[in-house]
Amino acid sequence: MSRADTLRIVREGRRFLVTCHRRPDADALGSAIGLAEILRSLGKEAHVWVPENLAPNLMFFAVGRVERELPDGEFDATFVMDTAARALLPRGIPKGGAGPLVVVDHHAAHDDVGDVVCRECDACSTAEVVMRLATELGARPVPEAAAAPLYAALVADTGGFRYAMTTPETLRLGAELLERGADAWQTAYELFEGWPPARLRLLGEVLETLELFEDGRVALLRVTRDMLAHTGADDDMVEGMVNYGRMLRGVEVAVLLWEFPAEKGGLDTKLSLRSSGAADVAKLATALGGGGHRAAAGAQLHEGLEATRKRVLSEASSILAEM
Ligand SMILES: [Mn+2]
Fold it and tell me: Are 227 and 206 spatial neighbours (Cβ–Cβ below 8 Å)?
């Protein structure tokens, strides 16, 4: 259940399926495409399969490289990247004929999904775990085709090499990926800028909802369906808006509550959490049925925004009291 088992599976196998969690972000998709290129550079066959629409701002590295339909035939293993929970496995993941489910991940909070788990929580991103595997497989420097997707993953999960998980190792990996052809500005522009006007208008409305609690240690922002509708924004554009709450000096826990269409109709509330350092928001998310990292976590609750607001404020208050 470890890196050694994962390496053995790669060495002994010939044909692999590579996928990632639902609603893939840059780390999920970038580490999947990056791993597939590394496998190909070792003479293996690898198929990246993601059975849903991809976010437009990830297309700069993903276009033409992902199969939407499950490829035919048997696989020696199925890699699921950046995935910490069974509920996040892609819809339609094969139940047989696709070998062991190998989870490659870096999330501290998880539900043990996977037959084999290569989870390294000191890594800034799943891409960093992939590059560690590549080292042991003799695939460093990584193939040029892996550079853009892995670099995007590193940049996204470290917030542009800013977060605490950014280590000298991370920067060395980033340097290698730039040497192999990744484009620093294109990556930053696609991941952090290049907004459509509707997104900026939505942000304006979201910022207007700011509430502060616990003597300014908790910031709360909200997104309603109504705000999305009249600014013409869509759900993908909400990504990252929780960070604005954390920007305020003195804020230790930033919360974004987001009305989100429930799978069975009606509205759920999505909860995004960020910590400025000391608070462990993964704990808070876990208490509400979600998960994530110490500094960035989330949950989706089958209840209205006001009910979630009450619960998250009470959990936040007890977490701050413990500190
Ligand atoms: Mn990640």
Answer: yes
Cα 25 to ligand 1 centroid, rounded to whole Å:
8
Which residue range is the domain that position 173 belongs to?
3-192
Question: Are 172 and 236 within one domain?
Answer: no
Q: Indicate whether 179 and 223 sit together in one domain.
A: no
Q: What is the pLDDT of residues 207-256, one digit of tens each?
A: 999 999 999 999 999 999 999 999 999 998 998 999 999 999 999 999 99
CATH number at residue 236: 3.10.310.30
Distance from the CA of 240 to the center of ligand 1, in angstroms? 14
In DSSP notation, 44-113 reads: -EEEEB--SPPPGGGHHHHTTS-BSSPPSS--SEEEEET---GGGSPTT--SSSS--EEEEE--SS----
**230 CA distance to ligand 1 centroid (A)?**
32
User: What is the pTM for the complete model shown?
Assistant: 0.89
Q: How far is the CA of 226 from the centre of ligand 1 (A)?
A: 30
Of the residues 147, 172, 192, the one at which a domain ends:
192
Asked if residue 184 and residue 51 are part of one domain, the reply reads: yes
Q: Is the dihedral of CA 30, 31, 32, 38 positive or negative?
A: positive
Ligand 1 centroid to Cα of residue 205, in Å, is: 28
